[in-house]
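quick q for whoever's on today - can somebody do inverse folding on this one?? i tried earlier but teh output was garbage lol. tokens:
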């Protein structure tokens, strides 16, 4: 019986992917094999010694101590693209909010006082201050062309916008999905200088923190609008306010309120609504549940943020999974241990990703605990487990 600890409410459609005859799932459970989490901050949390996997029902993993998990040989799974449509729709809403001044106009209208005739006159007199512009012919710059960025770029093309994108790490899969009408920017600075709107769709890390800073915002057109529905910290809040004050930027629309931003007249902050749809929550939970289950039952790794993708069809019921440092001679040492006890290898796959590697081995006969212990003692091995027949 596998045990799953949930640190947040997880969609029932995701939890139903775990057969009840093989899985016990609870928000309070001892010795869990896996953890499912959404927004719970796991930094500083005591990690159970039995833990084999973490599944984040969403894309970002800033709330998970990924580096610590890597050292323990624990894959961290996420659900890239599962909430892409929800975020795309919110970005489209952000484009319209920025172009048509909808929030200040609504605030003006709801605060009108007087009888209907007076309100009607005030409406006609006041509406000119909220005049906006239309999207067709305007240029949208998309930084990051992953699952969300590609969808945003494509829908902007459908809205009649000129679209330019920048992503030096775009995958072949995403490139095939991207509209041929999306032009390539030479750099982030090149993109910003050409754009009326700039939207960011990159993860938050040491390379992207403060990506849109004071120097880059000075490149914006005076009527330019920045949108951030990715992660807080990618855009410099103080630099945004200064750019608006100095005329380098017209407006900023984001999903991350702060004291610096929330009362600014030309900044719209939403309460982190990007993936807040029932459909997105269901999709994320289903995707990550399937990945965690496949890892626990088969040792396969798909959509891990720290370990390589490794998927091998089962050829026998006796499977060995080894997470290790990506160092020379590791596969040979594992094979040598198996050879000494005459365990015949039927199939094997080994892949690496940066400093980490992962090996799956199918064996003709069962593997004993003593052999697992011997393999775990190899320098550089992070975790070892025998994976029984599902």
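ok took a stab at it. sequence:
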């Amino acid at each position: 019986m596998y045990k799953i600890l949930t640190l947040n409410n997880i969609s029932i459609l995701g939890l139903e992917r775990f057969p009840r005859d093989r899985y016990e799932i609870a928000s309070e459970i001892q010795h869990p094999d896996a953890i499912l989490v959404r927004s719970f901050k796991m930094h500083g949390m005591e990690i159970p010694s039995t833990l084999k996997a973490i599944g984040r029902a969403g894309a970002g993993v800033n709330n998970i101590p990924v580096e610590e998990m890597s050292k323990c040989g624990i894959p961290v799974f996420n659900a890239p693209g599962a909430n892409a449509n929800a975020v795309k729709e919110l970005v489209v809403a952000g484009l319209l909010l920025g172009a048509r001044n909808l929030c200040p106009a609504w605030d003006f209208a709801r605060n009108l006082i007087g009888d209907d005739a007076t309100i009607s006159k005030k409406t006609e007199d006041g509406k000119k201050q909220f005049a906006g512009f239309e999207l067709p012919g305007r240029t949208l710059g998309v930084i990051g062309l992953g699952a969300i960025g590609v969808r945003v770029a494509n829908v902007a093309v459908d809205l009649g916008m000129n679209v330019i994108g920048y992503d030096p790490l775009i995958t072949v899969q995403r490139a095939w999905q991207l509209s041929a009408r999306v032009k390539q920017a030479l750099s982030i600075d090149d993109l910003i200088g050409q754009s009326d709107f700039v939207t960011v769709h990159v993860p938050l890390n040491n390379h992207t923190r403060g990506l849109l800073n004071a120097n880059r915002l000075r490149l914006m057109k005076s009527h330019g609008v920045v949108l951030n529905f990715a992660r807080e910290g990618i855009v410099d809040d103080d630099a945004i306010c200064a750019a608006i004050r100095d005329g380098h930027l017209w407006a900023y629309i984001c999903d991350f309120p702060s004291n610096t931003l929330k009362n600014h007249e030309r900044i719209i902050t939403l309460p982190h609504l990007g993936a807040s749809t029932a459909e997105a929550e269901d999709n994320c939970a289903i995707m990550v549940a399937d990945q965690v289950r496949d890892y626990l039952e088969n040792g396969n790794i798909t959509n891990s943020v720290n370990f390589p993708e490794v998927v091998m069809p089962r050829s026998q019921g006796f499977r060995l999974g080894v997470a290790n440092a990506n160092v020379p001679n590791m596969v040979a040492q594992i094979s040598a241990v198996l050879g000494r006890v005459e365990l015949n290898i039927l199939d094997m796959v080994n892949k690496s990703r940066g400093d980490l590697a992962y090996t799956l081995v199918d064996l003709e006969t069962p593997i004993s605990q003593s052999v697992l212990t011997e393999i775990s003692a190899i320098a550089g091995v992070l975790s070892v487990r025998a994976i029984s027949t599902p």
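fwiw The mean pLDDT is 95. also The domain at 308-390 is CATH 3.30.70.260 (Alpha-Beta Plaits). so keep that in mind when u check it
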